[in-house]
Each structure stands twice: as structure tokens, then as C-alpha cells.
């Protein structure tokens, strides 16, 4: 199912967010997906045990975390991989731990915020920023997130989950930073609705302050509009009119609308705090990491690495290649 709702189908129908005229036909699919996710949860637990031996603080993100506290059980929330956020200063120690426990690193990508590891059918995305989108590079650092992070039952202490407020903020920036140019699986809208329901009054006030500080009221309004259109039975009691109005004065709201490459670049540069970060971001666009360039353009090149950068520039100008 493109929207990845099979595992939580019963939850949605119990809440009347979905009608269930085809429930009998879907039952085999639902059971198959829940069985797959139950096996995945066991593989995840083996990974957590491996990583916990190093004592490095880590934050479990997205499906693997939400399935363990927001949903009734880990097999009710679909996921394709495990996402872990770590402070960049501990990255090399975690890499050593992964290598010692037979994990293999995937070929490097152009990302400057994450890398992927693989073992026995399970992928691990190791993040050192909460988002890979340049507008959100400096949104919520690890230390701030860790202060409010919550323990998870059955998961070793060095690994925690985002607080409900931060999890909802992450849900927003993940969509508008990753899925804004492609259809968003409805599963992420289920996360959004359940997270809002999970907040108490004090947490909703805290969320409002975080949305203001980060300029996310307009994006939050748009996301909940989509959620309401997708699941009319949900009827979340969010202050949409207030959020829309406040979002009109937040430049980040432009991410909710279609925009071209140049506007995207302007938004990305505006988000970088100071000339040094702006120059660093531009340099990363022009000169991706060397390991990525060697992997993307293998073989012998005149001048070695400089030759690869030159080839990439010429290919981009002639529309025959460029960064992917």
C-alpha cells in the first residue's frame, strides 16, 4: 500500500478515521504486514543492544520510536529503516561499534547530515542533524532534544525517543523538508494526528511557542489541513485560523508552496546563521564530500578529485548530469 496504512488499519477504523467496507479483503495484508513488523522489531532490539554497549546518547526517530510509545504496539506502525540521531562528536565511536558488530556502510550519498548502514535485511540511517534540508540544518540541536527526550520501555537507557512536542515538530519538518515535492504517505499524517492527541494542555502551549520560535505556524496549518482532508473523521481541534494568520508573517511558510531551484536556494541561504555558514553551505553545493565524488564518478579522471569536480560542473551546465 503506497500510503503504508496496512499495519495501523485496525487503529484507523476503530477511531472511525477510515471506513472499513473492504476490511475482510484487507485482513490478509494487515496480518502479513504486522508479522513483518514484529520480526523487524526483534532485529531492531538486537541493534539497540549492540549500540548501547558504547554508552553513547542516541535519539531514536520516526517509526521505530513512535511504534514503541505512540501506537498500541511496534507492529502497528510501518517503517522501512531505523533512524538514529547522534551528536556529531560521538559519530566515529558509533561507526566503530557498527563495524565491530558486522554492520556494513552503504556507499556514501551527497547528504551532509546522515549515512546508511546495513545488516541482515535491516537499514540504519545514522543522522547528526535532525533534518537534511538546509532550511532546517540548525533547527533543534542534539543537546536541546536530549534534555527533553523520553526513555522507551524495553530499549537500553542510552537510546531515547523525542519528546511528544519535539516529535510533532520533527514530523512537520520531515514532511516539508523531504516530501514536499512528492506525495506524502498518509502514514505520516496519522503520526501527526496521534501526536496532537497525545499532547496535554501544557505541551500544546509549549508546541505553540516552538512553532513561533522556529517559524512553523504556517507549515503546521498546512500539514493539519492535509490531515483533515485525508482523514475527515479525525477532526483535530487545532487552531488552524490562528496558525494560518501567524504563518503569513513567517518566511518558512514558503516551503509549503511549489518553488523553483533559485527560490529554494534563497530560502536555504536565509536559514544559515551568519556569513560563515552561508559560505560553507555554498561550498558544499559546489564541492560535495570527496568520498561521495569518488563513489559517484569512479575510474581514472584527469587531475583526480579536481577533475571530478570539473566534470560535475560541466555536466550540470549541459544538463547531462549533476548532483542527485
Task: Describe this entry's structure for a reader.
This protein is an alpha/beta fold and 324 residues long. It is 52% helix and 9% strand. The chain is built from 14 helices and 7 strands. The protein has a 7-stranded mixed beta sheet with strand order 3-4-5-2-1-7-6, with helices on both faces. α7 (186-198) crosses α9 (217-230). The longest helix is centred in the N-terminal third of the chain and has 30 residues, at 23-52. The model is unreliable at 320-324 (pLDDT under 50).
Descriptive key words:
324 residues; alpha/beta; 7-stranded mixed beta sheet; 14 helices; 7 strands; 52% helix; 9% strand; disordered C terminus
The number of helical elements comes to 14
Output mean pLDDT.
91
End-to-end Cα distance, whole Å, is 26 Å
Order of helices and strands: HHEHEHEEEHEEHHHHHHHHH
Q: Strands of the biggest beta sheet: in what spatial order?
A: 3-4-5-2-1-7-6
Beta-strand percent range: 5-15%
What is the makeup of the main sheet? 7 strands, mixed
Helix content: 40-55%
Task: Say how many strands there are.
Answer: 7
Radius of gyration: 21 Å
Shape: globular
Return the structural class: alpha/beta
Poorly predicted runs of 5 or more residues: 320-324
